[in-house]
Write a structure and sequence with these properties.
Blueprint: E1 13-15, H1 16-23, H2 27-43, E2 52-54, H3 55-61
Antiparallel strand pairs: 1-2
Helix pairs in contact: 1-2
């Protein structure tokens, strides 16, 4: 670990590569999915990170069971 860098063992976000693997799409499509979901979150007042999507929010929209969170 780098000094001063916070490390989370259980990530709460998916990146585009993970979204592409889950959905079974190309990387640029995964980025599009993330952009659309982040736009929704931002309009609701949430802080978003470019190229990442909150796992729970992603799973709610793709009807994935909760037991996959953190997998």
């Amino acid at each position: 670990l780098l000094k001063g860098v916070f490390y989370m063992k259980n990530k709460t976000y998916y990146d585009a590569k993970e979204v592409a693997e889950i959905v079974g799409c190309k990387l640029n499509t995964a980025y599009k999915i993330i952009r659309e979901l982040n736009t929704e979150l931002k309009s609701k007042g949430f802080i978003v990170f470019q190229g990442k999507i909150n796992k729970r929010y992603f799973q709610e929209h793709y009807l994935m069971p909760d037991d996959n969170i953190g997998a």
